[in-house]
UniProtKB/TrEMBL annotation:
SMART domains the UniProt entry points to: HTH_MARR
Matches recorded under InterPro entries: ArsR-like_HTH, HTH_MarR-typ, MarR/SlyA-like, Transc_reg_Sar_Rot_HTH, WH-like_DNA-bd_sf, WH_DNA-bd_sf
Keyword Transcription: yes
Protein name: MarR family transcriptional regulator
Keyword Protein transport: no
Taxonomic source organism: Bacillus swezeyi
Length: 140
């Protein structure tokens, strides 16, 4: 199997899927802001230092990004109850909604596509995405 060609095909298919099925965005969030929100959503204990590492920026720059997200009501800072020196960044309800809008497929659009498939095809799609998700989590 030619992995280079397969990777190109998967990437093309993925971008077609996301391009056609993503939500329309009304807000004006930067790519960095969306990445930060997504990282916070996927990880339980997120610090400013961890966000700086994610973006490959200084602690101060990450802190400025977080301040903007706090001003937009997308995140809040919370002190660790056992060690008050530790401060974690968590999503607010608005932050959860924003990360959903920017990283997920629109359920109505996806349903319309799935209704075009037969039961076996739907099972194949579900199995394939579940398998890819499982393997990605085990690799990274």
């Amino acid at each position: 199997m030619d992995f280079e060609e397969l990777i190109q095909e998967i990437n093309q298919d993925w971008t077609d899927i996301y391009y056609n099925l993503h939500y329309k965005h009304d807000d004006n969030l930067s790519h960095h802001a969306v990445r930060l929100l997504q990282h916070i959503e996927k990880n339980q204990y997120v610090t400013i230092g961890g966000l700086a590492e994610l973006l490959d920026v200084s602690h101060n720059t990450a802190s400025e990004h977080v301040k903007r997200l706090i001003q937009k009501n997308f995140v809040q800072k919370k002190r660790d109850s056992k060690d008050e020196r530790k401060v974690y960044v968590t999503l607010s309800a608005e932050g959860k909604a924003a990360v959903n809008q920017h990283t997920r497929l629109d359920p109505k659009k996806l349903e319309k596509v799935l209704q075009q498939l037969n039961e076996d095809e739907i099972k194949t799609v579900k199995t394939t995405f579940s398998m890819l998700s499982r393997e990605v989590k085990s690799c990274f």
